[in-house]
Amino acid sequence: MSRISLKIVGASGQGLNSIGEMVARGLKRSGYCVFGYREYPSLIKGGHASYQLDIDSEQIRSTEVHVDILIALNHHGLEKNVIDMKKGGIILHQTPTWNFSEENQKVIEDRKVTVAYLSIEEILGRLKAKPILSNVILTSCVWSLLKQDMEALKKLVTEEFGHKKDLLALNMQCIGEGAALAKEMNDTRTLPKPKKEWKDQLLITGSEAMGLGTIHAGVRLYAGYPMTPSSPLLSFIADMQNDTGMVIKQAEDEITAAQMVSGAMHMGTRALTATSGGGFDLMSETVSLNGIIENPTVFVLAQRPGPATGLPTWTAQADLLMAVDTAHGEFTRCVLSVSDSQDAFDLMPIAFNLAEKYQISVIVLTDKQISEALYTQKPYEMKNATLDRGKLITDTKKLKTLKATDRYDPKAENGISLRWLPGSDAATYCAQGDEHSSDGTVDESARNALEQIEKRMKKMDALKKELPEPELFGAKDPELLVVGWGSTKGAVLDALKSEDLSEKKIGYLHYTYLWPLKTSLFDQLQRSAKRVILIEGNYQGQLGLLLQQLCRASFHDKILKYDGRPFFYDEVVSSLLTQSKSL
Amino acid sequence: MNQIPLDSGAPTMKSYHSEVPCTWCDGCGDYGIWTALKRALVELKIAPHETLLCYDVGCHGNMSDKLLGYRFHGLHGRVIPFAAGAKLANPKLPVLAFGGDGASFSEGIGHLVHGIRSNYPIVFVLHNNGNYGLTTGQASSLTAQGVPMNTAPNGIPEHTLNSMDFVFSLEPTFVARGFSGDIKQMTMILKKAIEHHGFAFVDILQSCPTYNHFATHDYLLEHCYHVEDEGHDPTDLKKARQIAVDTSKRISTGILYKIEDIPSFYERLVPRQGKKTTPVEEVEIVDVSGYLKRFV
Question: How large is the ipTM?
């Protein structure tokens, strides 16, 4: 592994995202795989935020705890982030007089960290440039430190700021100044040899990927209420509305958003809403309603740590059990989880197909890590997705043959009855929230209740049969079996490729389809593995609890994280190394 | 002059007939609203399959299987956003939402506010009987203060919400009031409401013989008058608000306020301008490769 990591720290609003994004784009175009990760507090200005880029010529999809290069936009970084430095790392900062704490001074000496003061303020004064241009000087300095082609950077800056012609010359001067600063450092670190394959790939966040997947799936109405980390999806889809022609509604609350998409799906379009835990609590009654009226719906649940407001801008995988047990009453629902920018795109058409085929709610889990991480992503294939609307009848002749009692016919195969849309020239029915007979007439008889509950629950058996088993990565006959889901995948897959672990027989079993839960592959692997480990971003080991319940899973150990941070590459490597020593 | 078309091709009252017997109390105002609704749909030549009728939870919601048409019976207080979402998905279909004063002025009041503010192109019929009937006669926020009700033997301490003043404060585009004992006028009101292209707020004062002993059928019969008989100009906002709010001596019924030149929510959506298809008709796998360039 030749990965390099670079972390920009400063106050929110200081422009660290723009430096991060520019360097990321430049490096990707030069032939590197880049993974971007943001940490920030829940406020608009101030606080301590970071934007980290992990860079390699091989595929990379995780963040390291320790970094090679730290760029501190203010003095807070010199207090808080020295501890993040790798051996031989370099700190670039612009705080003229600074005395490191004793503890930090020791880290700097022990780890042979170089500290370089950049006289940016002086340069800006000399160029008579506004403070915002310090970002260009810093970007250029980092660019030059990584020995990248300066012409490529100039092209990028022209693309970004070229519309302000009067400023372009000043930008170019700043690039020159930044490069000169780097030259003085005589730093010898270099990036691995670039690879062509990355150049034309996309640089995309998980939210953007999911947004594109949503558009791809044929969604024509989106209603949402802002809540991190689901808001970037709302923003992206709303920003795209003039291209897509989609109906967008920023609703007055999450209940409204859930009801609006339910109404829209009932009418027959495809509609989506997304929220985080607190908003999903409010939506849950609507999920229950969709259960009894058998209305296909898709809800995105973007997780962050709770309870209550919790850690609004941090990540978690702690809402799996909530999703699985959403709302009152017993009914079939499906829970799946994205893990990166590939399946954030791929799973959206699948989620809608499952929803329509089984006439159920599908809950798609994501988390803050996926939502806001920046991925280097292969352009999406347009031919994989299909449109499956299940037993939806639209043919005029067939519509004429329908009886109202076909809608909720308890005798329908696998409990999946015919569905037709309001406005169709056919027998009319009631989508009835009370327990009802086959045409939606209220029916409180014991016999009818049994029939209808069994009809709705039968769908789960058929759904479970159709859902794929979890995917096994790494060793095909693992001695150490690691089980996880969601954004954990990126860090684990990167860790499996590390030199320390690549020789070990480690298999990572990744669950995408979490409810109804398939257990046969897991069961088979747990019998042959010497050691079975659970890795999850929650306190209880929630997937583990489901596996224990369904197939008596037993775990030798659990790697659980619930501090709001994602799994980091180096910490997963060391955890798995410890685990593999116990084989 | 019979307005109900009797020729076989057009919908008739029979087209909406459901075999399910009504379960409302004797003298319940829901019978009148139920009849006026069917008449309005029939007179507008809307067949049962050409509309979506959305019911909230309450006595009125028990109408959901007492007539035909595409119907939906949802959660307490939430009918407006469901109906709005349905309508935005298929703006060609008339969508009517029905809710009681309990749901609409307590749990669902936010939806009513934003429904009016958004000017969704739907009809909202308020079954206003001044109490929570189905849960056996608790006070709603429209129950007169001081009247003993179930769970409030001394009357409610809260003051009564002035629903019409509240609705007018939201700058509605259509406000009408009817009386459940006056089927003919309700039919006229509902027809105009369905034809309105924004959010039509229709308040029906409804007798509840079991629990409402302060605004009875007889009381309403005595106090209601038709504004159309007195030459009321429904574009006169100031007058409309005044006669809507002041019910101390007599109660105005009819089309109180109507303004047609305000675009509906759907008409205001820039991405939908000039689109001939509805979102329901547009569902397909969309090639997004053209959007990928911005990420390279």
Answer: 0.97
